[in-house]
Predict the 3D structure of the following.
Amino acid sequence: GENVEQHPSTLSVQEGDSAVIKCTYSDSASNYFPWYKQELGKRPQLIIDIRSNVGEKKDQRIAVTLNKTAKHFSLHITETQPEDSAVYFCAASIWNNDMRFGAGTRLTVKP
Amino acid sequence: NAGVTQTPKFRVLKTGQSMTLLCAQDMNHEYMYWYRQDPGMGLRLIHYSVGEGTTAKGEVPDGYNVSRLKKQNFLLGLESAAPSQTSVYFCATAPGTGVSGANVLTFGAGSRLTVL
């Protein structure tokens, strides 16, 4: 099955700085790559996703890039705010059949 | 419109006991999943279903069984609980292929299970 690795496991930035989280996947057939945010004690929620036919996608302060050749994708958060503090998970799947998650990155934004 | 509801929210078991976690959804989603979340290990897929009457193994299926007799319900069973199964369990659903937002997972609130 698919194997997703995520780095770093923890990330601390100053408010206003940018944060980058990177993931690699093993199965070249994977075609869907979402990112989920989980605040303390809450359920994960989708923040952005990208499909394999697109190289980059942006939504306000959040962007995701995908390099299919290298089998890696990244989450970029600009102008970070304290409310961005959470655990972020990347995931990969072939359509919906078997979605595998990375181990997560705990992002702390210091005011 | 409750979305995805998991019951129970908390449970303490003794080693060897059995129990069933229920995931119920009212969104008419085709796909349903059970994940477990452990510190430092992210979300690991236990079993999933791509439609009523179907189930498939995920990454960590051993020690668990599932059933999807009705489209809206996905049950996760532990026949003989072990301390290694202490975890937070999340159910998730997705609309399925051919639908707008087909791949987006909607998670339940989680069920915290402790096995002593």
